[in-house]
Amino acid sequence: MSVEVYYDDDADLGLIQGRKVAVIGYGSQGHAHALSLRDSGVDVVIGLPAGSKSRPKAEEQGLRVVTPAEAAAEADVIMILAPDTAQRALYAEAIAPNLAPGKAVFFGHGFNIRYGLITPPADVDVAMVAPKGPGHLVRRQYVDGKGVPCLVAVEQDASGNAFQLALSYAKGIGGTRAGAIRTTFTEETETDLFGEQAVLCGGAAALVQTGFEVLTEAGYAPEVAYFECLHELKLIVDLMYEGGIARMRYSVSDTAEYGDLSRGPRVIDSRVKEEMRKILGEIQSGEFAREWVAEDEAGRPNFAKWRAEGAAHPIEETGQKLRAMMSWVDRPITETA
Ligand SMILES: NC(=O)C1=CN([C@@H]2O[C@H](COP(=O)(O)OP(=O)(O)OC[C@H]3O[C@@H](n4cnc5c(N)ncnc54)[C@H](OP(=O)(O)O)[C@@H]3O)[C@@H](O)[C@H]2O)C=CC1
Ligand SMILES: CC[C@](O)(C(C)=O)C(=O)O
Ligand SMILES: [Mg+2]
Ligand SMILES: [Mg+2]
């Protein structure tokens, strides 16, 4: 099955320049969308609650900040970039009362629509522009004249022009410089959750920590274990990123490649694949979404406990010491680019 990919020439920036856009939330994605849209000539207002700690950042960067309800009332396109777990209440309290026929509600991830936590009225457009990368990279690429590829989807096309509007928004944040792929809310949500749980965040973090534990428990120096299991991972992933797994195998030694081919499938074996299928099943059935919403409503007890355990893992202390020796590695997270 081939996908439809859209580039700058397929998108009309004038569509989004002709609307007022409210960006609700000013975190990783929010700051990137808002600053890049503004730099693309779009009229942007930021919606944040009165006590939000993001308010000073947005104001320092020259953006006008009002409450989410005020932003939703004055805007034609309302992009919701608050945390997924905050969106349901935010929508009910601040956005739904301020919708009118012809307006559009946009998302950066399909979670709340896919799992029925938000159901906009039939007379508004509902679309998604989901960059396939962290917000700080989205902004950095835009500033550098490049872009992060985006997924674009339409859930509800009340105007008959929702896809073109979403594509125009994607152009405003640099997404169509790299390519915008047309998808659905269901496909984006399910694959995004699977990727972050099984491979990118959950799978990769557990693989790194477990490799580090095996080496240090066997008596090897934590510093050496850190280099082998975490630091060099970036160098290996960079090769995969540039030219696929084949490029990585071309670059490493034959000894490494033989070890990869003969031992890799023993680490990620059929049991792991079966567990990945179970994780996908929990995403598709809505079990993960129900669990995460309940965890959030209960005050996130497990989340806080697991986060603290992760932060206390010995690999973090070792990494802190080593990164201090490599000034080019320990880069601060900047809020603008
Ligand atoms: N992180 C990423 O790179 C990616 C995120 N996404 C999606 O983008 C969306 C935003 O995620 P992300 O950028 O990580 O979020 P962050 O946690 O980085 O930022 C959330 C922002 O929303 C604000 N906020 C919190 N509660 C409310 C509320 N009730 N009303 C209005 N604003 C609120 C926060 O303010 P305060 O500072 O006061 O807490 C903060 O400015 C999510 O749907 C996520 O799935 C999609 C692709 C990648
Ligand atoms: C991989 C994590 C992500 O899905 C992302 C940056 O794309 C997220 O939700 O933050
Ligand atoms: Mg993602
Ligand atoms: Mg995600």
TrEMBL record:
The active site is at 109. It comes from the Bacteria. Its EC number is 1.1.1.86. It holds the Pfam family KARI_N. Its cofactor is Mg(2+). Pathway: Amino-acid biosynthesis; L-valine biosynthesis; L-valine from pyruvate: step 2/4; Amino-acid biosynthesis; L-isoleucine biosynthesis; L-isoleucine from 2-oxobutanoate: step 2/4. Mg(2+) 1 binds at residues 192, 196. Mg(2+) 2 binds at residues 192, 228, 232. Substrate binds at residue 253. Binds 2 magnesium ions per subunit. Involved in the biosynthesis of branched-chain amino acids (BCAA). Catalyzes an alkyl-migration followed by a ketol-acid reduction of (S)-2-acetolactate (S2AL) to yield (R)-2,3-dihydroxy-isovalerate. In the isomerase reaction, S2AL is rearranged via a Mg-dependent methyl migration to produce 3-hydroxy-3-methyl-2-ketobutyrate (HMKB). In the reductase reaction, this 2-ketoacid undergoes a metal-dependent reduction by NADPH to yield (R)-2,3-dihydroxy-isovalerate. Belongs to the ketol-acid reductoisomerase family. This is Ketol-acid reductoisomerase (NADP(+)). It comes from Micromonospora sicca.
